[in-house]
Design goal:
Layout: H1 68-77, E1 88-92, H2 100-107, E2 113-120, E3 127-135, H3 138-148, E4 151-153, E5 156-162
Antiparallel strand pairs: 1-3, 1-5, 2-3, 4-5
Length: 165
């Protein structure tokens, strides 16, 4: 007389033991979602086929774009007059004591200065160490880059380069 072996199933059992034939006695257990929220009504567990034009159905706002991509798109929208013809210069390495008058005198050695703007800290009202100078002609600007780049102004080595938009 053969004795039947009692088998206990625990919560950790994955599949029931196989029969003599090698097949399991019961169907495999259904996979459960780990989500605590109930599944949406009328939906099947299989994924829906997606059409190529359809985007995600997320209701969260789209991610914000950062960096240079935004500035490039703005520069395309500008008219030809707003683009740098070559007479706008970017000056860095300035002392905090440099004023627009000092900068205008410094650049007038190489050509006629159209406009000069020293960028100030809004709270302290002192120079942030860089400025923008617009020369009258492109040749004046090239001459400034050639002769004033890496020169000393009020004890500081200044760099002069063409503005990049």
């Amino acid at each position: 007389m053969s004795q039947a072996k009692e088998v206990r199933y625990t919560a950790r059992s994955i599949t029931p033991p196989a029969d003599r034939n090698g097949t399991s006695s019961s169907p495999p257990p259904k996979r459960r979602s780990r989500s605590r929220s109930p599944p949406p009504k009328g939906s099947s567990r299989s994924p829906r086929p997606r059409s190529p034009k359809r985007r995600s159905t997320s209701r969260s706002p789209p991610p914000r774009r950062r960096g240079r991509s935004r500035s490039r798109s703005r520069s395309r929208d500008r008219s030809q007059d707003d683009r740098n013809p070559g007479n706008n210069l970017y000056v860095t390495g300035l002392s905090t004591r440099v004023t627009e008058d000092d900068l205008e005198k410094f650049f007038s050695k190489e050509g006629k200065v159209k406009h000069c703007h020293v960028v100030l800290d809004p709270r302290t009202k002192e120079s942030r160490g860089f400025a923008f100078v617009t020369m009258d002609t492109v040749d004046d600007a090239r001459r400034c880059i050639k002769y004033l780049h890496r020169t000393v102004l009020e004890g500081r080595l200044v760099t002069v380069e063409k503005v990049r938009y």
